[in-house]
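Thread: Newbie trying to understand structure tokens

Hi all, I'm a second-year student working on a class project, and my supervisor (Dr. K.) asked me to get a predicted structure for one chain before our next meeting. I've only ever worked with sequences, so writing a 3D structure as a token string is new to me. If someone could post the tokens and maybe explain what I'm looking at, I'd be very grateful. Here's the chain:
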Amino acid sequence: MVYKAKDTRLNRTVSLKFLPAELTQDKEAKKRFIQEAQAAAALNHPHICIIHEVDESDDQTFIAMEFIEGQTLKEKIETGPLGVEEAVDIASQIAEGLGEAHKKGIIHRDIKPANIMLIEKGQAKITDFGLAKLSWGADLTKPSTIMGTVAYMSPEQARGEEVDHRTDIWSLGAMLYEMLSGERPFQKAQEQALIYSILNDKPTPLSLLRSDIPTHIEQVIEKALAKKASERYQNVDDLMQDLKQTSSIAPSKAEKSIAVLPFTNMSADPDQEYFCDGMTEEIINALTHIKDLRVIARTSSFAFKGKQEDIREIGKKLNVAILLEGSVRKSGDRLRITAQLIRVADGIHIWSERYDRRMKDIFDIQDEITLAIVDSLKIQLIGSEKKAIVKHYTDNPELYRLYLLGLHHWNKLTPEDFVKSEEYFEQAIIKDPNYALAYAGIAEVNVFNTFFMSIAPRDAIQKAKKYLNIALELDENLAEAHAVMGRVHLFYDWDWEKADREFRRALELNPNSALILNHYCDYLSISGQHERALSLIKRAMKLDPLSIFINQNAGERILHAGRFDEAIEVLKKTISMEPHYYYPYTQLGQAYYAKSNIKEAIEAEEKAYELSGRIPMGGFILACMYYKEGKFQQGDMILDALKEKAKEEYVPASYISYIYLSRGETDEAYKWWKKACDDRDFMLPFFLNWPISFFRIPEEKRFQDLIDKMWARK
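---
Reply by user tm_fold:
Sure, no problem. This is what the structure looks like when written as tokens:
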């Protein structure tokens, strides 16, 4: 029990720490309490709370200590992740204090955010040496006794083993991770599960949780959190030294950025366009595996296809320092490929090369271009990165051609092209049943069929699962397959733990994929983790700034976080990029409705319905608004059209259920809601955290029971 008090003799404010009344007669507790005072009193350091005295009054033992006005680090972290410089500064101060304690033979053993006080001027102070182990005093902890706060315990401490100063280094690493990410490195609800995770699991790499973490800071944390104490920092001075060096040696994010522009087709045959596009995309995909390089995604790079725009303007729009451009001339089996690396700031060619080869050499050419980029940008590759960027799934040019054609049609995102895309992937599998990329391609087409085409989830997902399992059996390190599997677990299985695991694995394998980041944002938003979702969608936008798909998803994620004004601003910007794309209008209408701007809301939804060709997604929101505003005739027209359409093809039953809820017909809404659950309607997860009032799941028990059954069946 800690009280604020006044020392009347010295006229100063102090903190008085008392043993709880029930422990005043506990001899062991009293010894530990006095030992805390002795431990802290032996230390005189600006980053350790000062002990004035230990005394006893009316059979109550107390410690008089420095009064610190501010907040705990725990309270600060609860408001959100800290900036990199601030987190490193606080960690360095804590390390200095621990270094002083360790030199005096004192191990804290309970370093955690709640035991760090922050003064307004930014000074950090370590408090609470109640579990300290003294080299010069009795250790009151019995062998194999686990003492401390489990979430910040080192593996040896969690096992109840003998510990030394390196256990504090582990705890400091865990705290720095939490300061930067906003979450603990190991998270489990049950204590035993948490201990198991500390002993066996690796934390999610920080670079997957936010984009501005310098590589060397991540390496400092990884070393501090080594499972074996012998592999950790052996003293905090070395850790501090690495933290201080980080700011000066971290690579510049602005310098390490590139956009690969679409290679120009110089062949006589215009049908070779797919080959040029495919080669461009393969180089982009290879470069995204390099953690310290920001690579603009395909969508934004291809926005400049066929345009004669100034290099500086392209660099400015994409916010990159370097551009790669090239051309391909294909004649029979012969290839002539040129490539040049251009510095945006002054237009200087910093590397160029011409390749006259045969088609069978295409993979070698792609590797040479990719490695030349790495060399020119002075990027140091770690072993796994080099292996990833030169990895090929086939050496067969014909198989590669079929895959590129499948990719070419997939990227058009139309129902007709989805069909063609799947046909080409199927042809590739017939030629080589072990071609993992083709299986992953078919799976992705089928998952997206549930969103873009009138195909029931149950039909599409069963096929997707089958092909995903084959793809991952052939290659467990296929990032795209893990990302698609994450969507299956999220939207169809309702298994969020598995979805999270798959998305994280995908990002570990390909940390710079805008599409994977975008998919993961859906999961985070649906599960209510809005701040993390917004952090990742901003990363995706930096990687693919001109993507309509990602920009509108950013607006949708901001809408779901309840930031309606900000959502309106982002969605209007998205619409200005492509005024004829219907989907941003559906989100804009909802944002207006949430702000009670009914006229603007209905106008936006009417525009969406018109542009969409009157598809169900474009109409059900408008129908709900019509009914809510008493426009029953207009609402009935959309409802009748959707029910008629549902007789011939798949229409998400949740759409019709919500329309009936807006009409006030709960029984009819329940029938369609039950059908939605039976169908595994892919929209249901979205409705769990939908911010607009008329899209919230009804609180009636029968509706809630169906949701509970969905969870039970996951």
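A couple of things are worth pointing out once you decode it. The CA atoms of residues 485 and 502 lie 7 Å apart. The chain is about 55% helix and 10% strand. Feel free to ask follow-ups in this thread.
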